[in-house]
Design brief:
It comes from uncultured Mycobacteriales bacterium. This protein has 222 residues and is an all-alpha fold. Helices cover 68% and strands 0% of the residues. It has 2 domains: 45 residues, Orthogonal Bundle (Arc Repressor Mutant, subunit A); 135 residues, Tetracycline Repressor, domain 2, CATH 1.10.357. The protein contains 9 helices and no strands. The chain starts with 22 loop residues before the first helix and ends in a 12-residue tail after the last helix.
């Protein structure tokens, strides 16, 4: 008697083919399997057959939830861009101490790239290193997440410094861009620096720049 095929997406094994799951749980399972495949192969080389096999389901089950590969990719992109933006907003809102805000913003990027608390690793590659950047729907989402991350930092800088909006926005792009690129470099060279040391260095660099701008009604950005 044949043994039912099982998938391995996420942290646990998926049910065999034909196993019933609530719709939300099945969707989560399929997205976890798809993320593993997209991260490993990129969008263009990923195959729906492999995603279904990895999830332990038939292709018809996969297509019941996602009509095509692009829709599945966009669902993952929406999920992870929302996580990044929400994490950065929370980092800025949790304290009124500006040095802590800088620290938290840098940590938000390092945690996102490192996959801290994630069931499946590599989400940042779908956002920052996608091979589907020329697709209009993907390009729109990437532009949106960049804008929203910039705004999360810009709103705080604007409130504290009173600088004109165009100046605030380019400063915010510098903060988010530096944090993103540094976090990605650290991950690719993980043995070189401990995560905490890398965060401390980038935080110090960003803070030395931001703290030179005077607070509204104060002497500096502290």
């Amino acid at each position: 008697m044949a043994t039912p095929a099982t998938g391995t997406a996420g942290n646990g094994s998926a049910p065999g083919r034909g196993g019933r799951l609530p719709r939300s749980a099945r969707r989560k399972q399929l997205m976890a399997a798809a993320q593993e495949v997209f991260v490993a192969h990129g969008y263009h080389a990923a195959a729906m057959d492999e995603i279904a096999d990895r999830a332990g389901v038939s292709k018809p089950v996969l297509y019941q939830h996602f009509p095509g590969k692009l829709e599945l990719y966009l669902a993952l992109l929406d999920k992870h861009t929302t996580e990044l933006v929400d994490g950065l907003r929370a980092a800025m809102a949790v304290t009124t101490d500006n040095r802590e805000r800088v620290h938290n913003a840098v940590v938000a990027y390092f945690d996102f790239v490192d996959g801290t608390n994630a069931d499946v690793q590599g989400a940042f590659r779908l956002v920052f290193e996608t091979d589907l950047r020329n697709d209009p729907q993907v390009r729109e989402r990437l532009a949106s997440v960049s804008r929203l991350c910039m705004q999360a930092v810009a709103d705080t800088i604007a409130a504290d410094t009173g600088l004109p909006r165009d100046q605030v926005e380019i400063l915010s792009v510098a903060v988010t861009g530096t944090s993103e690129v540094a976090a990605r470099w650290w991950l690719e060279n993980k043995g070189v620096l401990a995560k905490a040391d890398a965060i401390r260095l980038i935080e110090g660099l960003v803070w030395r720049g931001i703290s030179n701008f005077p607070l509204v009604g104060g002497d500096d950005a502290r």
